[in-house]
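testing teh design pipeline on a random one, pls ignore if ur not involved
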């Protein structure tokens, strides 16, 4: 793709200035529609399992294209989840139920989408994010701002002149809804698109994110299950 991948833009201080709010919102909406196509509109349901900013390619018009289906799984027409004994994915983007129990589903992709959305509007990575002792991941930081009702503090500084406040707050709300701990609490992608594309004013109130990534000196994958979902810190690299 002529414009490389999404992470090339949003995590670079200079390149991020070329992505104004309208472009970022359109990218978010385009990614959501792409995931919905995989989950609902293909002949066989596809669960991507490795959705992340580096797997979102941008064409010459900055339209997003979901790429890298090396970990994708095709499930039955009516099947919405499956289980695997070997967890494969990327640290910071996989859901807690997948990391802990190997259960992946369309709601796992929803979780990953939520992380990507929050990264797009903040310009910050979820992994390696150490803002303070209270929030050592982007999800934890965003949740803290939400509970403190200082939502605009999450905004990428390069968006100050172009951001539409109502849309930004809606995106933050939706992002946090997508990364909730219980998969059944997360919206489906069809509902996400309705919330993004519609005029809905009153969105559901999100619950605490699935887990907060802490400082972890180990980069190896562990088969041991953590005592709680707040303790999931192991790196799970895509193979």
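output:
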């Amino acid at each position: 793709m002529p414009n490389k991948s999404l992470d090339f833009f949003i995590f670079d201080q200079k390149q991020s200035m070329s992505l104004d709010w309208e472009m970022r919102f359109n990218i978010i909406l385009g990614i959501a529609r792409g995931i919905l196509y995989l989950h609902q509109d293909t002949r066989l349901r596809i669960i991507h399992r490795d959705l992340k900013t580096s797997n979102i390619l941008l064409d010459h018009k900055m339209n997003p294209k979901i790429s890298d289906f090396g970990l994708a799984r095709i499930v039955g027409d009516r099947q919405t989840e499956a289980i695997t004994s070997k967890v494969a994915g990327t640290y910071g983007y996989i859901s807690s139920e997948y990391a802990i129990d190997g259960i992946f589903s369309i709601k796992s992709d929803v979780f990953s989408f939520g992380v990507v959305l929050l990264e797009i509007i903040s310009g910050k990575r979820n992994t390696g994010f150490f803002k303070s002792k209270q929030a050592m991941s982007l999800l934890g930081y965003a949740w803290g701002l939400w509970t403190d009702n200082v939502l605009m503090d999450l905004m990428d500084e390069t968006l100050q002149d172009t951001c539409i406040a109502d849309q930004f707050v809606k995106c933050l709300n939706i992002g946090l809804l997508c990364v909730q701990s219980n998969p059944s609490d997360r919206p489906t992608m069809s509902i996400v698109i309705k919330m993004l594309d519609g005029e809905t004013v009153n969105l559901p109130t999100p619950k605490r994110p699935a887990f907060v990534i802490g400082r972890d000196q180990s980069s190896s994958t562990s088969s041991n299950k953590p005592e709680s979902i707040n303790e999931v810190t192991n790196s799970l690299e895509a193979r």
